[in-house]
Amino acid sequence: MPSDKIQIEKIKVHLIGIGGIGMSGLAFILSRMGSSVTGSDIEENSIVKKLREKNITINIGHKAEAITDQELCVYSTSIRANNPELLRARDKGIPVIPRIELLGLVMERYEKVIGVTGTHGKTTITAMASHLLQVAGTDPTVLIGGESPNFDGNAKLGKGNVLVAEIDESDGRFVGLSNLTHIIMPNLEKEHMEYYRSESHLLDVFKKFLGAQSAKSTFFYRREDGNLQKLASGASRGKKISFGFTDRSDVRATNIRIGIFRIEFDCSCRGNYLGTFTINIPGVHNVTNALGVISLGIELGIDPGMIKHALSTYKGVKRRFEVIGEASGAKIVEDYAHHPTEIKATIAAAYSLKPKRLITVFQPHRYTRTKSFYKEFSSSFAGSDEVILTEVYSASEDKIKGAGIKSIYDIMVKENSVPVRLLEKGAIPGYLSKKAKNGDLILILGAGDINKTAHEVLLELKK
Length: 463
Known about the structure:
Blueprint: E1 12-16, H1 21-32, E2 36-41, H2 46-53, E3 57-60, E4 72-75, H3 84-91, E5 96-98, H4 99-107, E6 112-116, H5 122-135, E7 141-148, E8 153-156, E9 162-166, E10 182-185, H6 199-211, E11 218-222, H7 226-234, E12 239-244, E13 251-259, E14 262-269, E15 272-279, H8 285-299, H9 304-312, E16 322-327, E17 330-335, H10 340-351, E18 357-362, H11 367-378, E19 386-389, H12 405-415, E20 420-422, H13 428-435, E21 440-445, H14 450-462
Parallel strand pairs: 1-2, 1-4, 2-3, 4-5, 6-9, 6-10, 7-9, 10-11, 11-12, 12-13, 17-21, 18-19, 18-21, 19-20
Antiparallel strand pairs: 7-8, 13-14, 14-15, 16-17
């Protein structure tokens, strides 16, 4: 995919959609490499503000005049073909590439390239693995799909020869990345059906991705995942290492002890006991994520004691079961969960905190995802004492008839499994300020702008 003719160091580069989590990380890396970075996005957000603090010029709104004498133009997945900056760059003969190709150009600079992909858990594993390598003294370059307190952000330019990057699978373009030395996948299931025609199409694209890697690459996968087993058994090149809870796993967790914001588990590698590991984030799914990182660490020759220390000092990621605050005895937690599987895992994690009541707020992300999963969404809130549904966050998609929040609501009302309420987003803080009681856990879920509502709920409860 990447071309040797395109340079990314000490050039003038413009990023369209710079406020996105993936683009912003690359903007930071390019700036630290000595490039002059400009960018644009449709709205101001906290990431845009952080980039401006690093002397990166950013326009709000997309305008053709933003393209002047840049030597490279990069666009994010959400940017449409008629974007005025994209059109101007092409008219001026400026090289134009998608974000994933820029990532590939960055990858070419490193001897070890660790990529984390799959359907869920990518951000947590990327952040955990990055923290492990930082603790181990490798000084890695890091690109995380979320903001990590361990790195005070989502990116870091290291001096070592290792890159750790989260790899977005949403539009299939990642198949062009071919120089990864280590690949971690915790799961692979039906997702991003706005691009993939079917689950088998999704699997075929991942097969192509794995097949493009070197015979010296290592593939770490969760043993219990059927699709990942198919990928591993069908991969004729490279080394395969499994992790999970069954005795068939190369790296295995047993004797899991769940506390409040603390999980301990015993871990073994091919029958050899490694010891007891601790993570200070809730959810058994995070044990799976930790196993992927342990597998990587063992393969890289990192001492198990150092791996234990790294996992115990890992601080999580913003918007991944993030405690926003507590007021009137109610705890407000926000999570990025936007797929039925993720919602179920997050609700299970919430119950490890032993709330008196669990009130779940959910904002669907994308009309295409809502259309694909509305039935699965309707049954994913089991364990909640009440569910509040609000309008779909479009993520720049055109509205699809019949793919709104009511498609989920109608099934839930008909089945009468969990009390459910439809509310406009702006009405949620006021409603919860009257509803919340001491001992409640208010769980606010979604990958859109519902995170603003989480903070508004806290402010309302404090009044």
